[in-house]
Amino acid sequence: MSNSVIEQFIDLVVYDHAMATGLKACETDQDIVDYAASRDYVFSISAWLQYVELDAVILSESEALSIQTITNDHWSWAFRRVAAWRAMLMDGA
Predict the structure, then answer these.
(1) 22 within a domain of the structure (yes/no)
(2) Which of 24, 32, 36, 54 qualifies as a cystine partner to 41, CB 3.0-4.6 A?
(3) How far apart are CA 32 and CA 14, in angstroms?
(4) Are 25 and 69 in contact (CB under 8 A)?
(5) Rounded to 5 degrees, what are φ and ψ at 42?
(6) Does the pLDDT value for residue 92 go beyond 60?
(7) Could you tell me if residue 93 is inside a domain?
(8) How many separate domains does the chain show?
(9) Left if phi > 0, otherwise alpha if psi is -120 to 50, otherwise beta: which for 92?
């Protein structure tokens, strides 16, 4: 069930500008989990980390390296955690 809640939260961020704006402040995975919970999307940090890990399997080596170069205090850090959010970023972000 956790994955469906995670996927619902991910989709909401994609389609709701206010939700996406709120995600910009997240600097850790726990921040993302807490932000989701504050919007009534409750899942554990371990479920989130597993989801992120599985999502990262599809990344090429160069994509993974470019994601790792972004510091977690950059506004786009949280958007790089999963493919659906990465797709929201414009080139050069």
Answers:
(1) yes
(2) 36
(3) 14
(4) no
(5) -105, 125
(6) no
(7) no
(8) 1
(9) left
Which residue stretches of 1-93 are H helix? Answer: 2-15, 17-23, 29-38, 45-56, 61-68, 83-86
- In whole angstroms, give the CA distance from residue 33 to residue 43: 7
Structure confidence by residue, pLDDT tens digits, 71-82: 889 898 999 999
pLDDT band at residue 10 under the 50/70/90 scheme: very high
Amino acid in the structure at residue 84? A
Rounded CA separation 80/29 (Å):
11
Measure Cα distances from 53 to 21, 30, 34, 40, 93 in Å: 24, 15, 19, 23, 22
Do the Cβ atoms of 84 and 14 come closer than 8 Å?
A: yes
48 is a domain residue: yes
pLDDT tens digits, one per residue of 25-72: 999 999 999 999 999 999 999 999 999 999 999 888 988 888 888 888
